[in-house]
Design a protein that fits this description.
This protein has about 80 residues and is mostly helical. It has three helices and two strands; from the N terminus they run H-H-E-H-E. The model has no long low-confidence stretch (mean pLDDT about 95).
């Protein structure tokens, strides 16, 4: 079994070097980063995605989910 770890794309707090526990969605750069990652990993076969319940993580997962596989939301991954 292989496990791939992906961090969510950029949010506005990242621009200022701040840690953010709020439910902040991706900014334009974060969306672009997720789209670029989707292209880089498109050849990887996967069975499912496990994701934090935060908007930024779910948005990133939705973008990179090329094969439209099940996305499992796991509260234990919340920051």
């Amino acid at each position: 079994m292989k496990l791939y770890l992906v961090r969510h794309g950029e949010v506005n707090h990242n621009l200022y070097g701040l840690y953010n526990r709020e439910d902040e969605d991706l900014n334009e750069t974060g969306i672009k980063q997720a789209e670029e990652l989707k292209e880089k990993i498109k050849a990887i076969k996967y069975d499912f995605i496990i994701c934090s319940p935060l908007s930024r993580a779910k948005h990133t997962a939705d973008i990179i989910n090329i094969d439209n596989k099940n996305i499992i939301i796991d509260d234990r991954l919340k920051e």
